[in-house]
Each structure stands twice: as structure tokens, then as C-alpha cells.
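Good morning C.,

I know you're traveling, so I'll keep this short. The sequence:
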Amino acid sequence: MTLQQKRPTSPGTRFQIVDNYDDITKFSPEKSLCVKLAKKSGRGFKGRISSRHRGGGAKRIYRLIDFKRNKENISAVVMGIEYDPNRNVRIALVEYKDKEKRYILAPLGLKVGDNVESGSEAEVKVGNSLPLKNIPVGSVIHNVELKPGRGGQFARSAGAQINLLAKEGDYAILRLPSGEQRMVHITCKATIGQLGNIDHKNISRGKAGKTRHMGRRPYVRGAAMNPCDHPHGGGEGRAGIGRSGPLSKWGKKTLGYKTRRGKRVSDRFILRRRKG
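The C-alpha cells, ready to paste straight into the viewer:
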């Protein structure tokens, strides 16, 4: 992918940097791998808002992605690279020898016509999925399982990669994109390579309307509200928040307050916490 700086012919394009989608080779999704995606607007099954500032947005169709890569020892050919509105990384349509089609996350360097395979006997090359015990130390991987057979849960966004640092007994030591070092069982699967669409982080939407198209509604500062609506509200002019530290809309601390639950079972697999 390459980025394009828009000509400043309008206020909305003055600071806009967009993707020109030159890496896309297939522009219509595979209908057999698509399902309807109902809009939730940030609401849970009870109809209550659980994630604020969500709503509206363009219609989307969900593409079924094969995170498990459980069709083993059968070679597949990459039929096309597609855009997925539900994620920031490209997806690749692959067709197996038995004519079954699936979507996988497209790693950097994967092209139309390449062969990909999954299983313990697969070759160590970009796009192939193998158990960690069959991947050489020092390799760059993505779409890593946390538990065998569950499907990839780590490193699934644009440009993400995980480094395989070492293997000790039944566990492999991984360095995650956050800097955290974690032990994962060597029977868990991972895919070789770094995910593509690296320049996605450099995109500038340029105008508020582009954010509304993504289903994100405006976020209002607490200091701009009334005291009855937010703890930061009230005061004459720009009076600050009037607190020793920032609070949420419901009076809970929002900085320096740990949100991760303590004493989790998986804590014993974390060797080093994330940076900072």
C-alpha cells in the first residue's frame, strides 16, 4: 500500500492523507464467506450502552476469517488480496485443492498465485501456519494462538509482528508488539511473517465526517459539561477540572488506576510486563 496526500481543494482535503489501495487485486467479496453484520451502536444484549460514542456509520458485511488454519497438509493458492472494512489489515482469499475457499489475514509480501499451507509438515515461509515447536527461534510470526485449537488471538492488526525469542521445555517465549514477554505452549499455532498494510497508522482522515463514517460519534470533554453531567464540569471560564486527578463520568479514577484484574491464572506465563 502507498499513501497519497490530497490536494487542498477543500477544507476536508487540506490535511487528508489517504490510502490509494494499490495492493488490492479483488474488489468484490466472496459471497459464500460473508454474513450480515447487525449494527449494535455500542449496546449490549440488554439494549444498554456499554461502549459510549458509537453509532451511525456505513453499512458493512462481515467476512469470515480463518483464524484457526485447521485445514492441514493441503496446499492453497492465493486468489486475491481484498479490503476488509472490519479490520485495518488486508485479507487474502485462498482456494484449496478441493476447491474450498477461505479468507486469511494477508502478511507482508504475500502475492496472488502464491501457495500457502498449514500443518506441522508445512514449509517455513510467509503465509504458512505451523505449531510453534516447528518454527525456528528468531522468526517473525503473527496470528498466534493462546490455547491450542482456539485460533489466533495475538498480532492480528496491520503491521503487527511477534518475535519468537526462545523455547524452554513445553513452552515458547514470545515478545509481543507491546513489549510484553510471555510463555505460550509449543503446540499452539502461528503464521509466519509480519502482517501487511504497515502504513495504515500514517493515514490522516482530515475531517470529522470520515470518523462518523466509521461509526464513531463525537467525544465531548468533561470540562465542557455541567457539574450534573460530569465531575469535571462547572466553573467560570476555563477553570480546569477542579480535582486532584481526572475522573470518569461516574467518578472513578482514570489515570494511574489499574484496570487489569489481579491474580489471573495466566499471570504465571508473563515473564515481563509491557513497556511503561
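Safe travels,
E.
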